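Thread: "does anyone have the structure for this chain?"

Original post by V.I.:
We have the sequence but no experimental structure in hand. Need at least a predicted one for the grant figures.
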Amino acid sequence: MAAKSVLFLLLCSLVLNGVLLLRKAPEKTGTLVIGVVDGDTLVLEGKVKVRLRYADAPELKFCGGIEAKNELEKLVVGKKVVIQEQIPDQFGRGMAMVYEGSTLVNQKMLESGWVRYHHDTTKDKEMLKSIADKAKKDGLGLFGKCQSKVNPENPKCIIKGNMDDATDEKRYYVLGCAQYAFTIVELDVGEQWFCSEKEAKAAGYTKAETCK
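Reply from O.Q.:
Generated one for you, tokens below.
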């Protein structure tokens, strides 16, 4: 009988110690996010800026820029994040995988569709590329609001202003141009719709060589 009492007291002691240990558990590690610059850049405590790897958000002045910033604010502002796999970008700024608890913020932004996929090389590359491709296919975020083959705002203004990714050369396409039907106007990177060729030329665009 005495042995059973000792065993009971021992079990109670272990449970009590476990509760005390839980109460004394250290706070979750991480750094407080005090703000965001845009949809892919956080401002940490101490005013340190960190960009999200794999994510490229529109500039605030372009279509989707404000929405991307708002989305990132909801995910991180006022919360502590853990910075992993940080590397410098071509301008020497820090780029990282950012976790809020168990949530990978980079992944959440790609899922939302408010950022474009930016090529990178980590163990998560294929997973994040797949997520970004799905958001684009489903027309989420900027892929639905800011990119189209027809002008949703003004059907009368149908001249497509397009910028070359490699050279930044500005070209415009009118009906009759070989590539017109396939050309997507991406407002999130600053491309434009025009109502006249004169307007397109004034904005620095030249007529595409494939046009008749």
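V.I.: this helps a lot. The longest strand covers residues 80-88.
O.Q.: and The two ends are 102 Å apart (CA to CA).
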